[in-house]
Sequence to fold (322 residues):
Amino acid sequence: MEYTTLGKTGLKVSVAGLGCGGNSRLGLGTGRSEEEAIAIVRNAVDLGVNILDTAANYKTEELVGKAIKPLDRESLIIATKSSFQKDGAFFTADQVIASLENSLRELDTDYIDVFQLHAVPPKGYDHALNVLAPALEREKEKGKIRHIGLTETSPRDHGHEMLQRAVHDPVWEVMMLGFNMMHQKARQKVFPPAIENNVGTLLMFVVRNIFSQEGYLANTMRELAEAGLVSADLAKSDNPLDFLIHEGGATSLTDAAYRFVRHQPGVSVVLFGTGSQDHLRTNIESIVSPPLPEADVAKLHELFGHLEGVGLDLPDRSQKKA
Ligand SMILES: NC(=O)c1ccc[n+]([C@@H]2O[C@H](COP(=O)([O-])OP(=O)(O)OC[C@H]3O[C@@H](n4cnc5c(N)ncnc54)[C@H](OP(=O)(O)O)[C@@H]3O)[C@@H](O)[C@H]2O)c1
Fold:
């Protein structure tokens, strides 16, 4: 495993982080048992992963708590989240603190390393900054939270509108954003100011459905070609990104997806979600592999650098069969 510093938190984190949400939810989302999900967490830690990302909303906090119980808590970085809104109403500070207290109970721990506001929409940012952040800072002073972060609502905020504001406000130490081979605008909009302000970044939507589900990429490419957003040639192939897989290059589409994002300057941690022991192992191998060949990276920039919002499905749009 390789480790890096998570921006101004100063935390030493593994470059591969285990996502405990997404469609997999450690495998619970695809019909695996609680024991199997616990084994995913423990094997990830055995393989050197020290950062685990969960959320009240994922319903995996209790399981993560059980998985880490026999482990050395101090060696782990636990990130979790409070929801930001319900039925269109933004959470009050009291609701966020109640969520924090519940997370501490579920995770069976005394503190959260990175506490995040989950899926903050651009129109909610003022509320997050002016109402919720001060309440979180008070919890930080009490020692219940070590660092404060927020996540964007990628499927609805394709242009990173919220994070482009948040990245300049010092209270946020960590930001989670969507970034992948066909959704690259963060290269201009988020990473340069994140580097400048020393904000730690966690990546989501790196593989999701588009780079893991049979046929999904080809269908998307056809839609993009019809809309005039990519060349018609790309739409003709059933495996349009196969040019990335060659001797000295990527070994698979998911390998390409994880390696492309990992080496982007400004990226701290690549989160990956899985319920499969095989994927756990191969994803970590990919994330610690060298960059893709320069020519392949340049081609991905050229072909897709202008796209926004590709591959950012909401969980309920998953095509995955349980
Ligand atoms: N707004 C937010 O705050 C937000 C939103 C989305 C995600 N997140 C966080 O980001 C984490 C990662 O996002 P994500 O779950 O979408 O992860 P991801 O790594 O982009 O995609 C995971 C999907 O790809 C499959 N997969 C993983 N490795 C594979 C491989 N080697 N070969 C084939 N298929 C593979 C997984 O299924 P298998 O189980 O079969 O491996 C799963 O369906 C989440 O767990 C969560 O912690 C946060």
Summary: Confidence is low (pLDDT under 50) at residues 317-322. Residues 167 and 265 are 16 Å apart (CA to CA).
